[in-house]
UniProtKB/TrEMBL annotation, chain A:
Membrane topology classification: Multi-pass membrane protein
Top-level taxonomic group: Bacteria
GO MF annotations, alphabetized: transmembrane transporter activity
Name the record gives this protein: Putative ABC transport system permease protein
Predominant location category: membrane
Family (UniProt): Belongs to the ABC-4 integral membrane protein family.
Pfam families reported for this sequence: FtsX, MacB_PCD
From TrEMBL, chain B:
GO MF entries: ATP binding; ATP hydrolysis activity; transmembrane transporter activity
Record protein name field: Putative ABC transport system ATP-binding protein
GO cellular component, one term: membrane protein complex
Stretches assigned to the ABC transporter domain: 5-221
Phylogenetic classification of the source organism: Bacteria, Bacillati, Actinomycetota, Actinomycetes, Micromonosporales
């Protein structure tokens, strides 16, 4: 007699897997939600950190792009008590002759001069504003623009005429130039002819009352030495130019000249942001790990509670692999839901924070994708052990102890 | 003719000190269309025997054959396939999926055969009619009475037209009136052609079967 052919295998349709794998989630939604929370928090933290960092970096990059990185300032390296000290007489012109320099403007901070709204205010109340003599090219060298009025020109530079920096105008209460706008500068009245927009790369200009060289020399006793020179360079040669400028500004004592690049302050913010990003990403990863352990815990408990169901499924013909796949998919779903919720949460945090700071919110697609993928991986790994435990359970034992 | 179920010198020993010999050489043949009651006091090895016969456990020695197929030759996967396609089991504790309705519980009997859900549900409706629960199709299992739950479990075991339907103390969790009704249902299904092996310690249940096998200390009592 021929042996009968081996019987058919048991088989679980793919279409049936999802309903089977979601039984645990559907019967205990509260527990599922809580176990999802840990992963969601971890992913949200990571997405938010990446999103916020990227948004702020984009903001800084846009700022750098707008302001340019080719502005240098040349000043004396030993300022006294916040006062800039003098550079040699011909510093500006020799800087201007340096190769790679596109434009240079000399300014001179005038010591011990204060600015007031009127001549009735006592001398002690200076308001922290500077008086600065400048050449007429400063506006174009700084790429600054006027909020109101006009800048100094060849004609007005010799007269008691002043252009106020943005902050100086605010402090002095000069809002527009419609009326008779005069300020008390040193020992005489100056007429305000212009107000500058904020100059982001030269905050000292914001706090200054700018007057012409001629007016400074004739009325206020300025001796002609500049204290700070603003230099616009060929963008590709900025660093090379920066290294040549000390000698150009002061050939006798190059070491006493400090050249700085104001945009470096902004660039530094990018680096600092990178460092804190790794820190917070690490914290997010820890949260994710804890979330994964939470899922594993819940799955182990779930498998123990559902021994009867496991035994029944085996009795109905489920192979070990069917039981294992059921629990792994359940765990993967927990992870995926946690990841999805986390990505949404992280994106929401990014948008709120960015709008709060006035940035364009950017959620890097890679961060969202990686976050979701990480959550799925965590769910898979967390589910493996409980699923194998369920699969290895002998059906008789599962049915007996249920 | 091949027996639907055949046990040849089946033994099951559980390791330990001393080892426990739960089943000690049982020979039994159940033919297609028969209804057999396996009776005996608790501890006589009835449940172990059912687990071996229903392919839920493997004997230490001896042979279990379902429709001529020796289970000891089957891999775990093939054995699972055999359970899915050839066997049905009804338990004392019913083991229903509480959140699912009666129809889906019964349809689960075909889940691991890879039959599409629509066909499973259609077959489940038919099986529920057979056990007299046509009016309870969409009721959630946890809202059904004990007798109704056991009828659902029987319909689930029956839906795949198994070679043998095993029932392990099917009336054990039911009051006597409900238990009698379940017993009557099993007899009726047997009259309709189903091969049924009932494990019970209840002599009343045993007397309903035409053939009775008494188990004592892991052996078939004469």
């Amino acid at each position: 007699m021929r042996r009968p052919p081996a019987g058919p295998l048991s088989r679980l349709r793919l279409a049936d897997l999802l309903p089977v794998a979601t039984i645990g989630l559907r019967t205990r939604p509260g527990r599922a939600a809580l176990s999802v929370l840990g992963v969601a928090i971890g992913i949200a933290a990571m997405v938010a950190v990446l999103g916020v960092t990227r948004s702020s970096q984009a903001e800084v990059l846009a700022q750098l792009d707008r302001l340019g990185t080719n502005l240098l300032t040349v000043a004396s390296s030993d300022p006294r008590g916040g006062q800039e000290t003098q550079l040699p007489d011909g510093a500006a012109s020799s800087v201007r002759r340096t190769e790679g320099v596109l434009a240079a403007s000399a300014t001179a901070q005038l010591d011990d001069l204060a600015v007031y709204r009127s001549d009735l205010i006592p001398d002690a109340h200076g308001g922290g504003l500077d008086v600065r003599a400048t050449d007429t090219a400063l506006l174009s060298t700084l790429d600054a623009s006027l909020l109101n009025g006009v800048f100094l020109d060849e004609a007005t530079a010799n007269y008691p005429v002043v252009v106020l920096g943005f902050k100086a105008a605010t402090v002095l209460g000069v809002a527009d130039l419609t009326g008779d706008d005069r300020i008390w500068l040193g020992d005489r009245w100056f007429v305000v002819v212009g107000i500058l927009q904020p100059v982001e790369l030269a905050p000292e200009i914001d706090r200054a009352a700018l007057i012409g060289f001629g007016a400074a020399a004739s009325g206020l006793g300025w001796d002609g030495h500049p204290t700070r020179v603003y230099v616009r360079t060929d963008t590709t040669r900025t660093e090379e130019v920066a290294s040549m400028l000390p000698r150009a500004a002061n050939p006798q004592a190059a070491s006493r000249v400090a050249v700085s690049r104001p945009s470096d302050v902004l660039s530094a913010r990018l680096t600092v942001a990178d460092a804190t990003t790794s820190l917070f990403l690490g914290l997010g990863a820890v949260a994710l790990l804890v979330g994964g352990i939470g899922i594993a815990n819940v799955m182990v408990i779930s498998v123990l509670e559902r021994r009867g169901e496991v035994g029944l499924r085996r009795a109905l013909g489920a192979a070990r692999r069917h039981v294992a796949v059921q629990f792994v998919v359940e765990s993967v779903l927990l992870g995926a839901v946690g990841g999805g919720v986390g990505v949404l949460l992280g994106a929401a945090v990014t948008v709120v924070l960015a709008q709060n700071r006035g940035w364009q919110p950017i959620i890097p697609p890679a961060a969202a994708g990686l976050g979701l993928a990480a959550a799925v991986v965590v769910g898979t790994v967390a589910g493996l052990y409980p699923a194998l435990r369920a699969a290895r359970m002998p059906p008789t034992e599962a049915l007996r102890t249920a | 003719m091949t027996a639907a179920l055949e046990l040849v010198d089946v033994r099951k020993t559980y390791p330990g000190s001393p080892p426990v010999e739960s089943v000690r050489g049982v020979d039994l043949a159940v033919h297609s269309g028969e209804m057999v009651a396996v009776v005996g006091p608790s501890g006589s090895g009835k449940s172990t025997l059912l687990n071996l016969a229903a392919g839920l456990d493997r004997p230490t020695s001896g042979s279990v054959r379902i429709a001529g197929e020796p289970l000891e030759k089957l891999s775990e996967r093939r054995l699972a396939g055999l359970r899915a396609h050839r066997l049905g089991v009804v338990f004392q504790q019913f083991f229903l999926l509480d959140h699912a309705d009666a129809r889906d519980n019964v349809a689960a009997g075909l889940l691991y055969r890879g039959i599409p859900a629509r066909q499973r549900r259609a077959a489940a409706e038919h099986a529920l009619e057979q056990v007299g629960l046509g009016h309870r199709m969409r009721h959630r299992a946890r809202l059904l009475s004990g007798g109704e739950r056991q009828r659902v479990a029987i319909a689930r075991a029956l839906i795949g037209r198994p070679a043998v339907l095993f029932a392990d103390e099917p009336t054990g969790n039911l009051d006597s009136a409900t238990g009698d009704a379940i017993l009557e249902l099993l007899c009726e299904l047997n009259r309709g052609g189903a091969t049924i092996v009932v494990i019970t310690h209840d002599t009343h249940v045993a007397s309903a079967a035409r053939r009775r096998v008494t188990l004592r200390d892991g052996r078939v009592a004469p």
